[in-house]
């Protein structure tokens, strides 16, 4: 395939960015999207030009670092996948592909297609943990009976990889799907009850402090989420927050 790539180039957070056109040929439909970018960067380096900076790590759909906005969709024109799992067979010969970084105040651009997602880390640090008794008289977690429905829901919430697609897809740049997933995975389990009140209050307050917007109830976050995190988690987080507000 022969493709035209329109890629956002920006030297740093303070520089003015712009879309730059690149032509790439002989793209195999079996290539992953990141492999296609690797080919482009090899060509740019051979020409003595600056390669396009983009984030990636495992390339197995687990780490969530390959966050790209492709043709107006987070992770591109497929569902329940990350960018590294997107293959070029989803495009046609002669296509023009727009490639941009996440657009959110809380995700400032570092360079080109890489954004700073450390805001998610700070939200996690605010409450995404449990207290564990390490006195030598601990109870095996597997010995605590948990209803299967709750265990399944907690596991589904825990599959969130923190990629930020929910933020990128929301017109308010809301992080509520991410935060609610992290709240839910503990709220549904007995191990998470010790910090339940402080957790939801601290994580929501940190989310607001980072500059994320509020939920729009549009549902774009669930549609674009590579792990299919449900909007039900946002409803659960709202209930947890309300209960914590009364207790506080």
From TrEMBL:
SUPFAM superfamilies: 2Fe-2S ferredoxin-like, alpha-helical ferredoxin. GO terms for biological process: aerobic respiration; respiratory electron transport chain. InterPro entries: 2Fe-2S_ferredoxin-like_sf, 2Fe2S_fd_BS, 4Fe4S_Fe-S-bd, Beta-grasp_dom_sf, Helical_ferredxn, SDH/FRD_Iron-Sulfur, Succ_DH/fum_Rdtase_N. Its cofactor is [3Fe-4S] cluster; [2Fe-2S] cluster. GO terms for molecular function: 2 iron, 2 sulfur cluster binding; electron transfer activity. Residues 151-181 form the 4Fe-4S ferredoxin-type domain. Pfam families: Fer2_3, Fer4_8. Belongs to the succinate dehydrogenase/fumarate reductase iron-sulfur protein family. PANTHER family: SUCCINATE DEHYDROGENASE (PTHR11921:SF41), SUCCINATE DEHYDROGENASE IRON-SULFUR PROTEIN (PTHR11921). This is Succinate dehydrogenase / fumarate reductase iron-sulfur subunit. It comes from Kordia periserrulae. The lineage of its organism: Bacteria, Pseudomonadati, Bacteroidota, Flavobacteriia, Flavobacteriales.
